[in-house]
């Protein structure tokens, strides 16, 4: 988000504008003011798409690419990666991949054995120290390797490790089982963020959410009710097998207030 904002407004030319914008957003955030159209489906798709984009952006440091795109879409990023194959550094790839593997291993160990929770917490700092020692020990044999480059490589894999767990597959599958429109909203947010832009992807998902609300208001769910014998309780006939129809009457439950927008639909 900071990269996108920097493309529109330069922080060097308009520092007061950006500072006031950040203060205003934080004020609304902590005072819980304004409206929120970011439903669960929108957030699941956005977080998954943003996690992939952030991970792909780290390929610049992983592969040692100097000339890399500043765009946040998947197509320009992959194009920049494969067009700069001559800038790839196998030393950086091996070092970074080995530390990422160790990071993931320590996380698995901490998750399986709660007594070893400290392993996952201590290893990130340990990896930075080890990478620095490796550079100092091999400085004469690898003159092209710099300490700053190694530390940046480890830092990049910290980011990759963090965003890998932001893709919530279980929540997406649950949306598919519960509500198909919410699942479609999740897909719109995911692919919009991935292929178009973050703000446009969120705008599309919010538009689908608003359409769902309007659809529910104009076409509310209805259900026939029946009486449970011996009581004054009425339940849906499809859900409760004990409920029975009331002779000469049709009892209908409407899951929305009656407005002019749905009056014709209910009458029909």
UniProtKB/TrEMBL annotation:
Record's bilayer topology term: Multi-pass membrane protein
Signal peptide as annotated in the record: none
UniProt cross-references to Pfam families, sorted A to Z: Sulfate_transp (PF00916)
Record bears the keyword Membrane: yes
Keywords: Membrane, Transmembrane, Transmembrane helix
Transmembrane segments: 37-56, 88-104, 116-138, 144-164, 184-211
Name by which UniProt lists this protein: SLC26A/SulP transporter domain-containing protein
Subcellular location field: Membrane
GO BP annotations listed: transmembrane transport
Gene3D superfamilies in alphabetical order: STAS domain
One GO location term (cellular component): membrane
Domain SLC26A/SulP transporter: residue ranges: 39-149
Keyword Membrane: yes
